[in-house]
Design brief:
Order of helices and strands: HHHHHEHHEHHEEHEEHEHH
Largest sheet: 5 strands, parallel
Radius of gyration: 20 Å
Shape: globular
Number of domains: 2
Strand content: 5-15%
Bound molecules: zinc ion
Number of helices: 13
Helix content: 25-40%
Distance between the termini: 51 Å
Structural class: alpha/beta
Length: 295
């Protein structure tokens, strides 16, 4: 059975033959392009997965931004704050992220969001579980409400799933049995927000004002809440989510994401758009500020 014969077929028989072919003969790694030797539902090689390391080095104790040595030296390591968190008290208690939003990890998130490769959510969920574990020592005795950042219904219809919720569910599977977290998808995105690219932090906040609502306030009232998302870019989105959740009665809001943009990595960000960048530009909260130069 030759490939060309399969591909020249029509209708459902050709479709079945093609998907069978894809299962029997693995494709190339969707991150680095090398041929995959093992059959896996996730078309990413082990070397690429192994390269997605946790963030190392001195970080802001509140938002997780990378600290420059002078900042880190200014206060004890455990409470060191970045310039932004020293100027304005964040609305959330603390944000933790697993990895830096660049290279392989960035590609893996794009595979899920724009490539529709759902098995990527399992790997990303394991990473999110690690970010949650960083916050966990400070969790209260009673369960924390796990709230994924929602998509607007138009975007949800286009994509077919909310990546934040998919990753959150995968993280909960890793943590099983879990009596410390309670999945509560109570946030709704009331309107599609315009792109955040090139906006100042004040404009970003204005852009997101009124974008989120709490559908079931009783689920978060008097409770501590953990907001989860795939990427933390400037923190404007999770901060707005935290603000409405606090207003609905949440006593404290924590934030965990799979990835985070970091200052250092933004300095040597390539000018050339990466794969999936065209779609990424329509996404709010997804494009690092370095990309916004000149737009
Ligand atoms: Zn690879
Ligand atoms: Zn900070």
């Amino acid at each position: 059975m030759s490939v060309s014969r399969v591909r020249s077929g029509h209708g459902w028989t050709a479709q079945i033959a093609e998907s069978l072919f894809a299962v029997l003969f693995p494709s190339d790694c969707r991150v680095c392009g090398t041929a995959l030797v093992k059959i896996s539902r996730l078309p990413v090689c082990q070397d690429c997965l192994d390269s997605m390391n946790p963030i190392a080095g001195g970080l802001c104790a509140i938002c997780g931004e990378r600290l420059f040595s002078s900042y880190a030296a200014a206060s004890a390591e455990a409470q060191a704050r970045c310039g932004l968190c020293r100027r304005i008290e964040p609305v959330f208690a603390r944000a933790a992220a697993y990895g830096s939003y660049e290279s392989g990890l960035r590609e893996l998130i794009h595979l899920l969001k724009y490539g529709g490769v759902r098995p990527a959510a399992n790997v990303l969920g394991r990473m999110l579980a690690e970010a949650i574990a960083m916050l966990e020592p400070e969790f209260p005795a009673e369960p924390v409400a796990l709230v994924p950042v929602p998509l607007h219904r138009t975007r949800l219809r286009q994509r077919g799933f909310n990546q934040a919720e998919l990753i959150a569910r995968a993280a909960m599977k890793v943590r099983r049995p879990d009596n410390r977290l309670l999945l509560c998808p109570v946030l709704e995105r009331k309107r599609e927000t315009t792109s955040q690219i090139g906006l100042t932090s004040h404009q970003r906040r204005e852009n997101l004002r009124g974008a989120f609502g709490v559908l079931g306030p009783e689920a978060v009232k008097g409770r501590e809440v953990l907001v989860v998302d795939d990427v933390y870019t400037t923190g404007a989105t999770v901060s707005e989510c935290a603000r409405v959740l606090r207003r609905a009665g949440a006593t404290k809001v924590w934030v965990a994401t799979v990835a985070r943009t970091l200052k250092i990595s933004a300095q040597h960000m390539e000018i050339r758009p990466a794969a999936g960048e065209a779609e990424a530009s329509i996404e709010t909260e997804d494009v690092p500020m370095a990309k916004a130069v000149g737009t």
